[in-house]
Structure prediction request, 309 residues.
Amino acid sequence: MDDEARKIVERYSAQAYAVAFRLTGNHADAWDLVQNAMLRVLKSYGTYDPTYKVEQWLARIIRNLYIDRLRAEARRREDSLDRVPAEERRSPAEVLPDPGPGPEDAASAASDGAAVHRALGELPVELRAAVALVDLEGYSYEDAAKALEIPASTLGVRVFRGRKLLKEKLAPVLGR
Amino acid sequence: MSYFRCWSARNLLDLHGDGRLSAAASERIDAHLEACAACREAAGEFDALKGLLRSAKAPPAPRGLEAAILKALREHAAPAPAWDWRAALRGARLGPAQAAALAGLLLLAGSHFFGVPSQRAPGAGMSAPGGRR
Prediction:
């Protein structure tokens, strides 16, 4: 399993990280999502459904974990008595040694890319996931629909609505 | 001029640009775009948006991510250590109420086990097993 696991991690981590970063918009949350998603995939690889591509499978888990996390955060916010101080909510990625020039730096260096990720982060999560997979990651409609577990027609509507919102938000960049 | 009206053409520009329309529908959109400058401009804006989105490169996975995943996998795969009840008892901290409840439970269990009758109101009926009549 060790060799097989290593191969899967080496082959799909970068792709999974890209999807996670598009969804979360930040390095620490993307790291956590990818790590948790990879663990799920590797632990249940014996029950792998070959009708899914591994990247679809990973994207689906990442999206589900992210939505679970958003729901949990919303519940936490509602319960102000149980609110944990921000410094205690730091993810493992934030306390690891600095890996050097980070992805956020690289993204901000390319101002258009940074503007796209900012605008993407303002979309509702379901529209964000649809646009991220189709327009940024280049998934086919069929692959993206399968990864998000929705019909292709629903995906089409979400992509359409997401693009419309992005067009408004990115008007200053597009108009240059 | 095509019979296609602008509003319906605009709603199909996404699908047209994604190559998801039938050949016949695509031809009708193309014909409309040739004749309608406003819709041509809208199609250009759509292409520009798609180009901008496609150009937004995802940041590379940070160094150390793959190693961290494999390390976490090894830790998850390791068998869980056997439960050490002595250590658990040593580490246990009972509050006064919990201690009193535990003592009561032990007393009750002991009285049943050793046949000591429990206190009952006069005329309460059955006695404890082995109790005096």
